Amino acid sequence: MELLKKHTVSICPKCYEEIPASVYEDKQMVYMAKNCHKHGEFTFLIEKDARLYRRLMNGVESQDRKPFENIMIAVTHSCNLDCPVCYLPSRAESELSLQVLKKTIVGFEGDNVRLSGGEPTLREDLPEIISFILEQGKIPSLTTNGLRFCNRQYLRRLKDAGLYYVHMSFNGLSDQTYQKINGCRLLNKKLKALRNLKAEKMNVRTSILLERGVNDKELTKMYRFCVRNLNFIHSLRIRTVVPSGRHNVFEQLYLSEILSIFSNAIKVSKDEIIKHSLSNFGGEHLPCSLTIDLGRLLYDKAEVKGTRNPVVRLVKIALVFLPRVGILITIGALIRYVLRKKRLIDFIVFIRVWPHIYSIDLNEIKRCPSAHFVGSTGEVLPFCYAIALNDRKYKL
Known about the structure:
The structure is a single chain. With 396 residues, the protein is an alpha/beta fold. It has a domain at 70-288: Alpha-Beta Barrel (TIM Barrel), CATH 3.20.20.70. Helices cover 35% and strands 23% of the residues. It is built from 14 helices and 14 strands. It has helices at 50-56, 98-107, 126-135, 152-161, 175-181, 187-199, 219-228, 255-266, 270-280, 294-302, 310-325, 327-338, 383-390, 392-395; strands at residues 2-11, 18-26, 29-36, 40-47, 70-74, 112-116, 139-144, 165-169, 203-210, 233-240, 289-293, 348-352, 370-374, 379-382. The strands form two sheets. The chain has a ten-stranded mixed sheet, with helices on both faces. It has a four-stranded antiparallel sheet with strand order 1-2-3-4. A hairpin with a 2-residue loop joins strand 2 (18-26) and strand 3. The longest helix is centred in the last third of the chain and has 16 residues, at 310-325.
């Protein structure tokens, strides 16, 4: 056994108070041990690959919180689904007033405001909120299940109001997957919503929630679907079900496991992906996440630097890109390379394993760029910390 962090801070899974914790490695796995003076000691597995955790952890404790870059605001608690894995399942809470929303938006230090729920498209004054965000010089985006986008006229209303990005949940390519994760068959509606988003030329970021034994085998198909639609889908966010909200069963996939699945999907080694994420997305990482610029990753794999012959460079790029993104995207990437464009492919992959009440490291999440507005208290907290504390409503 080797101690990786002698002192950090976490949350008691019983009373939700902040308590001292430590992180250690044992048999190549990583555990968090914590001690609550009321409820005793707890030990939880937080990562199955100690080598990966070591590479992503930050050795020096952050004294100050990193400025938030984006904020999630639940504009309504109503929803048109009843998902078994919902992390914010309370439907009884009242909507935030427009006055409170505007005050929060104006006071937020970052540039990106993400409206969520519940299901945000159920809020009647959503177009007005989107327009207000734009008027403040900030970027409005929506985190949604996309069902109301089956109505193209409604989608156009939001677009005309200034909606910039749509983060749409897209958990698989089979109705069986949606039945298990979302509680009903949704594939046809999801595909129709995506067709309308494409027709309206919206910027789309798809989000897949992986559940062990349900849709983890679909990730390769989902990646290929997104790549075939790069003209309007610009990112894939990969998350895993964690014990939060309605979902109490501890069956999460760990970051190393998702990395292995994605590595197999794009035929790039795990080591190459880790190096890419560390070198391209800042010196400070979170042990819960990896970020991949697909075009940059594949370009680096082609190893064209040092190759003087321009034809050989193009051949090298083509040989790497073609089996991973297909002929049309490869041709586009080659044209962009010849034109000396900065990015060969406009596609980002985010792999996230949310910290939860069992695994959260409050020193690490000081570096988290994502905030969540807690409507009941008016606080702006790191996203995962806010979600973990929110569980008190359902579990205490």
